[in-house]
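User: Can you recover a sequence for this backbone? Please restate the input before giving your answer.

Assistant: Of course. Working from this structure:
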């Protein structure tokens, strides 16, 4: 709680005996000038909205967790948001990992490959491009800004078919490059890194490093890169989630199941029940989906502090 300041020293450069000193006196605070810190007001509307958002987010996750513990028969005969009679989670995990000679592990490895190379490359390009756009002036910078903003507004699905036609001519379809190369381009990540670098790196600090004899590369790695760490982690999370959940691009680019990511592979199992002579694998699809969600949830929890700092950066200007 803030306290009121009380002082016997007169202000306006006057001593206590009435003589003028010509110097500005200390500032005195009048009673009631400062008010006690107020507690944030509670809003019923905001509380209800947050509760609805929590339900919208957590109920499907709870349904997935409960469903992963059931057999195929239990899925059809039990309530979705509670356990069935038999707890079959460990058997389901074993079946997921061994079905079709363990192809789920191959899909998991493919997803890691696409994330490490695609999302990692997109983060590196966004980091370098955002730093250059934020701290260097060059002809055509406004045009680059307009192109980046315009590219952010274009959904990826709108470019999927032209990308497929281009890659088909180049012979890249049905190869990992058909998924990795488009994943390297992320206009939103570039824009976010550009905005973050503009606020996080003082130009005076870079000039001081140059005066001390540091080159541009050393200035970037020793001065700019540490200050960009929160924004870099935020971009890593965005590109990782985008690549991990990518479905439509692999769907039109890949035909060989050996190169499927998890999203496409699980969809392949799900569609097996609707093909002539196919086997229903819904319990394996649900358990595989739960195993797919866990790495992303762990990553978010571990990097939550950097994620929040990165999103808040640049929101308030002093």
């Amino acid at each position: 709680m803030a306290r009121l300041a009380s002082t016997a020293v007169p202000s306006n450069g006057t001593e206590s005996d009435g003589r003028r000193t010509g110097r500005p006196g200390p500032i005195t605070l009048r009673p009631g000038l400062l008010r006690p810190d107020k507690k944030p007001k509670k809003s019923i509307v905001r509380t209800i909205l947050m509760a609805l958002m929590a339900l919208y987010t957590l109920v499907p996750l709870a349904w997935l967790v409960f469903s992963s513990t059931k057999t195929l028969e239990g899925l059809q005969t039990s309530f979705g948001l509670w356990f069935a009679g038999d707890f079959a989670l460990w058997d389901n995990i074993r079946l997921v990992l061994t079905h079709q000679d363990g192809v789920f592990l191959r899909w998991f490895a493919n997803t890691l490959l696409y994330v490490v190379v695609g999302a990692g490359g997109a983060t590196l390009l966004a980091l370098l491009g955002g730093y250059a756009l934020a701290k260097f002036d060059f002809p055509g910078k406004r045009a680059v800004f307009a192109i980046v903003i315009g590219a952010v507004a274009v959904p990826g699905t709108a470019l999927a078919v032209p990308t497929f036609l281009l890659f088909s001519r180049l012979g890249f379809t049905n190869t990992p490059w058909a998924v990795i190369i488009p994943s390297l381009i992320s206009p939103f990540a570039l824009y976010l890194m550009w905005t973050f670098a503009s606020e996080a790196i003082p130009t005076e600090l870079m000039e001081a490093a140059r005066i001390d004899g540091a080159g541009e590369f050393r200035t970037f790695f020793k001065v700019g890169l540490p200050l960009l760490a929160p924004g870099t982690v935020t971009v890593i999370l965005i590109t990782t989630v985008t690549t991990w959940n990518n479905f439509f691009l692999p769907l039109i680019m890949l035909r060989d199941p050996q190169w499927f990511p998890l999203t496409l592979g699980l969809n392949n199992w799900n569609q097996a029940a609707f093909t002539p002579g196919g086997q229903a694998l819904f319990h394996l699809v649900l358990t595989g989906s739960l195993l797919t969600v866990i790495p992303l949830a762990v990553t978010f929890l571990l990097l939550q502090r950097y994620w929040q700092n990165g999103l808040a950066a640049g929101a308030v200007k002093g």
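That completes the design. DSSP finds 15 helices and no strands in the chain.
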